[in-house]
Specification:
ATP binding, ATPase, four-stranded parallel sheet, RapZ_C, 128 residues, 4 helices, alpha/beta
């Protein structure tokens, strides 16, 4: 029997409601928003300056580790057939996809099967 898959779906709250998930993580109020820097605003999580900015936020490492532990707990249940994790930020182009990618890498490093999707990464910058 194959091991369960963890689906990670990053998203932006300003585009649509969060996707259905076992665990939704709201990154809006607690982590540095690259959107506020004009030089980063039109970049995405694909760009190194965005990743560096997000990952330099105090607490991000602890949240990644705590989320990985929560995923392991969800998968250890008697009827666990996978889990969906949905990290969200305002526009879905910066914080959430960076967090999602690093969570996916961490879980894969622990032998967990992961499917990663970024719902809003390629959408236009939200004007706010």
């Amino acid at each position: 029997m194959p091991s369960p898959t963890v689906d990670i779906v990053s998203f932006g709250y300003l585009h649509a409601a969060p996707p259905p998930a076992h665990l939704t993580i709201d990154l809006r109020a607690h982590f540095r928003d690259p959107h506020i820097s004009p030089e980063l605003r039109h970049m995405t999580a694909h760009d190194e300056p965005v990743r560096t900015t997000v990952l330099a936020t105090p607490g991000i490492e602890q949240l990644l580790e705590a989320t990985a532990a929560a995923v392991a707990a969800l998968l250890s249940g008697p009827s666990a057939d996978g889990a969906t994790i949905a990290p969200g930020c305002a526009g879905g182009r910066h914080r959430a996809p960076v967090f999602a990618q690093h969570l996916a890498n961490r879980l894969r490093g622990r032998g967990i099967r992961v499917a990663l999707a970024h719902r809003d990464l390629d959408k236009p910058v939200v004007q706010r």
